[in-house]
Every structure is written in structure tokens, then in C-alpha cells.
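Components:
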Amino acid sequence: MDRRDFLTLAPSRKKTAKKVNTSRTFSGLNPYTGEWGRAQVVHLLKRCMFGAAPADVKHFEAMTLDQAVDALLQPNANTPAPPVNNYGADTTGVAAGAPWVLAPEGDEDLNDDRRASYKAWWTGVMLNQERTMHEKLVLFWHNHFATETQTIGDARFMYKHNVMLRNNALGNFKTLAKEVTIDPGMLVYLNGYLNEKTAADENYARELLELFTCGKGPDSLYQEEDVRAAAHVLTGYKVDKVAITSYFDATKHDITNKQFSSWFSNKVITGKTGEMGTTELDDMLGIIFQQHEVAKFICRKFYQFFIYYEIDQNAEENVITPLADIFRTGNYEIKPLLAALLKSEHFYDPLNMSCLIKSPVDFTVGLCREFGVQFAPAANYAQAYPQWRALQNAAATQQQNIGDPPGVSGWDAYYLAPQFHELWINTDTLPKRTSMADRLITTGFSSGGATLQIDPLIFTEQLADPSDPVALINDALSILYRMGISDAMKTYLKTNILLKNQNQDYYWTQAWNAYKAAPGDAMARGLVVSMLKDLYHAIMNMSEYHLA
Amino acid sequence: MKRRDFLKYTAPAAILPSFINGFAVKAFGGSPLLAALEATATDNDHVLVMIQLNGGNDGLNMVIPLDQYDKYQAARTNIAIPTGNVLKLTGQTKTGLHPAMTGLRDMYDDGHVSIIHSVGYPSPNFSHFRATDIWLSGSDANTVLETGWGGRYLDTEYPGYPDAYPNAEMPDPLAIQIGSIVSPSFVGNGGNMGMAVTSATDFYDLIEGREQDVPNTRAGKELKYIRLIQKQTNRFADAIKAAASKVTNQRTYPANNYLGEQLKIVARLVGGGLKTRLYMVSIGGFDTHASQVNSGDTTTGSHAQLLKNISDAVRTFTEDLRDMKKSQRVVGMTFSEFGRRIKSNGSMGTDHGASAPMIIFGDYVNQQVLGNTPTMPDAASAIDNIPMQYDFRSVYASLLEQWFCVKPADLNTIMLNNYQSLPLINGLACSVVTGVPGVNDDDVLVTNYPNPFTRKTVVSYKSRGGHTMLQVFDTMGRLMATLTDRVHVAGNYTVDFETDLPAGVYYIRLQNGAVQQVRTMLKVR
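Structure:
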């Protein structure tokens, strides 16, 4: 399909679209059977991974749509090795280069060091993601079950929380919700460990209903009494700083019966004594998950994260509703939900392409992955961690600091109407994004004796025919942009940028061939690199580059 | 400062480029250095407009050697301009202009044009890209500079940029490029100091607040939003709009003339009071390997059209500025990455060559033809090039000295060398009167004996005192030897030139202050 076709409605649709907003969708959850080509593959990868790296594009282009989605839904084959001491002196005795995740807690300064190590490590895991959507889902769940490392304090809990999200990211949502509830990091973050029968703390119970399961939609009708009841169910959970885990203290648990509201059919959870007290959580999740609103709420969050922030009436009826049915009847398994969504007509609807503003993490990590920016290997922690950290800092200054979203609701861009994703882009963050891209394509970031920089040859060498400037630009744009640009703009990129105002295409071909014939010739290589840098620089400077 | 250090210092600068409706903007974020600024700021409002002729302009068909017309005609039988059609210049018998350039001829006759013969540099590069880099950076043929000559100038004028800019003293972009991405010429220590206006359309979109269409889709909505934010982050947008809005009435520029469109924007910004010092505009299509003239009439064809576009655009631009009473602020200059061969090829075109003439224009520009018509061989071969008479960096240095009033010490910092000063600009421009040494065309300043020679010849030369340089080039323009490069007292000198070079034509070039002379030497077996 010509990429420009995405931007216009099919003729048959135009008729029905006349009276309504032309940007509303009409497609539903039926399996997509249309063209499966570069545009669809890049769309899928940009949404499900961090950027569409050329090698990944090639890899998935060789598959059918079903195969590609199924492959993306496989959990990672390897568990990432834990973060290590890259910060030097460790008062608990962790050697340089050794993991700190099971060491004693140490003081606040040490945990600051470890927090930085943890965030760098997480960025490294994203950069080195496998060909699955596993890492994107970890970020999704981090936004959904938001916690802040500044509150958690203990870096080991931060890491453990991250591992818990990763272990369940493609599993069962109900299980995940339970794991989150008794996760030590979350118990600290929302005061669950202070929630005792004598003085119930409702903090977590409220967020469990409002943010994590039922949501705040018009059909979510839980009551204050439900918050209170849930808080009492959750009394008695504590954290163990030595074992780095949580545990249940039955003596702190409220053993009275818990009465829920009429929205929950006036269910009562019978108070239990001793270790049996922990089964009350299962009982309560059973009650909550009977609400159809739970599945709908989660499906909407997936929709807003992976498709677009606005859910129009068609999408609510023909996507969210059937998707929630799949989710609920499948006992809240995450994979069938995502498989249905990512294989649907709706996902590949041209109207849903190119409309997702890249989040800062997607922008920074995706940029490095697409251009194949070379980071030091993880084993070389002294160099790798500062490099990962530099990238993480860049995303943080662009207002997405992993591990520390603004609050328990996650990042504003995913819930604050009406702007939603547009909140990522403002007069402060946009220059920062562009500045980062500029630095990477020009001088690079120097840290740890190494320079983090885009080598434009790495990306270019993976294109089909880099010697032809027209093919080069078309091919590069088919990966770097999701929107078509005008022929005039393409000519501009070719003649005024790549060819530095020369009119003859063969000057590029000559330069490229000269480089290919003698890759070691510094002059030949330098010329090609400077021409490509100008090209990619211009491409990254345009508004289109911020859309996925 | 070492050249490599530029990179280091560039790194921490926060570069904030963006496109606004495809309107590319480069600007920088900030630290104050106003004290240094006061120390070096010049109190003139002079502007230099650089017109880049992309592709390598065939200078020999633009500025035609009437005194060597037979050799010219013989070397270019299929493309030579008939002698009767060549435009005569007031007071000039040896040099004429292409018949399409009536506008520049008139400006010359009015006394506002300098034509400089055979501008190049030793050992020229024949690649468009490398040669362009050399011209924009002001480097030697064998060195790579990370900064541009314009950027280095702006560094001395506005030290510390981009920190604390824009400010009250300099609220405007330091340099503006129209028609492309920001020129490497504008790269200074703090990164690129220029701003690019991608095209006339984008420029008018900006000043008239128009927006490019986006599709009526979700993607279009988001694209429109991002573009809006990009527009808001363009720190110079308001300054440019304000300047442009002050000019409501301009001359009618020649139709279908892209250079004219660009110069119209420059005139509007200068006329509106923008303090920007450097403008770069460009016109492409000079890579005339084939069919640069029409076979029936060599005064027409693609090259003629290009020269007409330049001449017409520059004339209207000058008149426009004069209407606005701003022409005294502006000097313009044409340059190209190289000239073309002396001999034309079989497809009625010319291949990549070496030196070429430059044209400088403006109210303060001295009326003159600098240098001699190019020394041409009796029977040109395909590889013969026009030997360099003037180094292009001498032109830059002279403009900086005489137009931007840069002090000699800074001049060396900017140009990274001590280049010959040429009398391009009236001394009133910087309130200093530069003595123009009168050179009688027939004075022989350099000669060699014997000539032809087999292995050794004695070069005799006359110095008026001061810096004196004697260089030997081959016909490809490569620097073969530097026989003298020192300060002399006035007098006559000799130096031996002994060489194992292959037999053939060589050029001996004398440079002494503003004076230069090139003569042919013939080595035989």
C-alpha cells in the first residue's frame, strides 16, 4: 500500500464518514487481513518494542502477521543479569562489578548510588531487549502499577519490584495484581506495611480499586465502604529488610468480617485467623475481578498505551468491549488480549498509524536502537553504566524518569485529558529531545572515556540499496518515519541535504561506492559519514520524527 | 587554540534546532559574556551576503579574457562566447563579461563591483564535497577544519555564543542561511551560529503565520500540535517576523529566479533592521559537464541562464536595498567550490577545474578588475587548469578587515594564517584609508632565466618590501614548491629553482602585499 493511503480514508468509508468527525475509526477487533508489508511491520514494532531497528524489521518482515505477533508475545528467553556495583565504595562490602541486589540495605547515600545503578541497568535492559514486547510491557505495567523509588528508598526493593513486573508482564493480570499487592516495594510505597487492625491505612486499598483494577470510569461504582473493607482485608502485611521480602503477621491482621457494597453484590469476606488470613486477599480479588469494568479498564489502558489516547465510540463498542470479553473469559491471561488487539483490523487501521507521540523513553531508547548506537557491553560495567545512565538522564529531563513517575497515577500523558500524549511535548521538552538527537549525531555524549554517538553507516548499511540516493531516503524514511512526506520534501532531503546542493544523484553514488571500495580510506569514509549525518540530522529535526 | 579543541568546546553546547513548517532553525541555549563582547564588538552594522554557486562555476565563460581571446577560442571552440557578444566594462580592455550579465555590467560601470581573477588555493581538490568544505571552512587542501570561516569570525565578534544569546545587543540570529540547512561556514566554537530558512515558502509561512496543511487524521492532529510547539520554541521567530513586517514594499524580483527569491528575503530582513551579519544564499546547476551552451548560439543555454539569474537577481537586490536606503549596509560576494577546465569537452561542457573569478558588489566596493586574465596555454590540453592568482582566503580576510573592520590580530585567529590583503572595499567603510598600490599592468615583477629550462632556472623578482611569497604550481594547480615566504626590504631578488619535476608547463606566482603576478615557465628535457 502506498504510505500516503494511510492518511486518507478508503472510498467506501468516506461515505459513512461524511456526517461525523473524519478522524473517528470504524474498524473493530476482526482479524486484519490486509497488506502485511514494511508499513505494518514498522507500525507493529514501533508500538511493541523500542523503535524499529532495521535488523528487527527484516526479521519480522519474513514472518506472517500471526507469526510476528506470536513471536512478540513470547516471554524473554533470558533473564537479565541483575544490576551491579558501578559506583565504587560500598559500605556493605559489595565488590565492584558484583550485584548488590541481595546485599544488606546500607545507608541512604548507598541507596542513592544503587538507585542510579538500577535505573541505568533498566535502561540497558531496554536497549538490549529481545525481539519480544516483554520490555515494553514492563514499562506499561510500571506506569499502571506506578511506584516511586524516592519513596521506596531501599534499592533492593526497587529491583525486586522490577523483577516481579517482568515475571508477570506476559502472564496473568489477576496474579500480577496479587503479586503487586504483597510486593515489598509497593507495601512501602503505599504504606501497606503500616496497615494494621488497630489503625487501618487505606492508601493502597484505595489505589487498588481506583487505579489498578476498577478504575474511575463512569461504570466503576465502588464505594468508600469498599475502600475501607479492602483496607481491612489487607491488614497485617509487613516487609522484611533482611530477607528482602514481605510477610504476613497474623497478629496485626483484622479478623473481623469485611462487608462490601451493593456494587459488589454486598459480598462479605469472612475474617480468618492465623496464616489463613492471607486467603482473604484471594477472596477479595475474586470479588473485584467479577466486575466487568476491571477488564474494560485494563483494555482501555492497553489501548491508550499501544494505539491512541482517544477512545472513540466505535473503539469503545467494537474494540474495548469485545477485547474485555476475551480478557475476562480467558481468566485475565494477558497474551490472548494482546494477541487479539495486535492482530486486529483496528490496530492496522491507517487512522491509528503514526498518531502515537513517542514517550521520552521510547524516543531515547528507540533512537539508539534504530541507529544501532554502540554501547559498551554490560560486562564492561565501568563504561556501560555511565552510558546507560546518560540516556536515562536524557529521558528524565524530557520528563520520563523511569522508577519515578510523578505519582501513583503514573505519567500524566497516559491519563490526563484532554491532552494525554501531547503532554510529552512542550516548549521545554521538545528542544531537549532535539538537542539530544543533535548531540548524538554530531559530537556525541562523552562518558567513561567512550563517546556515545550515532555512526550513520551502521543504519545505512542495513538498507536495501544505499548507493541510490532516492532508494536510500525512501528506505530510511520507511523505518524512521511513520508518516509520508511530500515529494518536494524528499527531493529537498536528497539534493539540499544529502547531496549538499549538488544536482547530480551520481555524486552520492560515487561517494558511497568509493567508500564501499575502500572502507579504510578515511577521506572516503569521512565524506559519506558527513553527508549521512546531515541527512539523518535533518530527518530527526522534523516534527514527523516524534510520531510512532 | 588547537583545531581539534573546537570539538571539545563544542560538545557541551546545548543545540536547539528545530523545523517550523520545515523552517529550520538553529539556536543555542546560554552563559553571559557581555564584558568580552564590549571589548570586541564592532560598532558597524555591515552585512555580508554570500552567494554560493553550487556545482563549480565555469568562470572562463563568465569573465572572458579578451586579451587572450584567440587562445580562449581555440581551447573552447564549441562553447566560446563570440568576441562581439562579450560585454565590455568601463575602463577595461582585457576583461569582459558574459552577455547575459548586463545587470552586473551596469553595476560595474556604476562603480560598485570588483572582479577578482583566478581565485583558488594551492593543490585544489576536484570533489564537489571536499572542495565545498574547503571553501566554507577556509582550510588548506590537506587539512579538515571543524569550524567555518564565518563561524570563526562571529566567534570574535560575539564571543561565548550561544550562551546568553539572543540579548539586547544582538537580538537576532548571527547568520542566516536561505535555501538549505545551516551552512558549515557558520560553525564556530559554540556550534553552528547560523539559522536556516529552508525556502521562500517556509519563510512566508512563518512571517504570515501560515501553517502547512496536515491530513485530517489523528496523525495529522498530532503533527500539527508538534509543529506548533516547534514554532513556539523558535527564539528568533519573533525577531524575524518583526523585521519582515517593517518592509511592506519591495521591488519586483525577476520571475522564475530562485536566487532572486532568496535575495528578496535577505533584502526584506536587512531592510527591516535585522542585525544579522552573514547571509548565505545559493544557486545550483553549475556542474555543466554537458550542453552548457546551445549548439546554435553559444551565448544561450543553461550556463547563460544561470549567469543571467545571478546578474538579474543581484541587480534587483541592489536596487531594492537602495530604495530602502540600506544598500550601504551590504556587500555581496559570489563563490563556487571550483572553476572548470580551460579546454571544453566533446559534449559542449566543461569538467571540474581549479581557479575561477569571484565577484564582489556593494556601494563600498572598489570598482576594479583585480589580477590579470588567466594565463592560458597556447594549445590547451584536457587537464589544463587556470593557475591560481589569489587565494580565496585572501578575499575572506580582506572582507573581514575592510568590511567588518576586524583587527589584524583577530584576523589571524579567524583565518588561521596571514593572508594577503586585497583592496576590495573603500577605506571609508572602516574609517581607514587603505593605500592601494598602483600596479602598472606592464610591470614585470617576476621572471625566470633561462626559459625554457631543463633542470635549473633563476627566478628574478621585485619586492616592494614587506611579506613576499614565491610559489610554483603545475597545470593542475598543485603547489610544487615555495621558493620564498618571508619579509623583504624593497629591492630586486633572485632565487634558484632546481627541480626533477617532469617536463611541462609550470606557473611561478609572486605575492607581495596586495600585489601578485603569475608567469609561465616551461621545463624541457
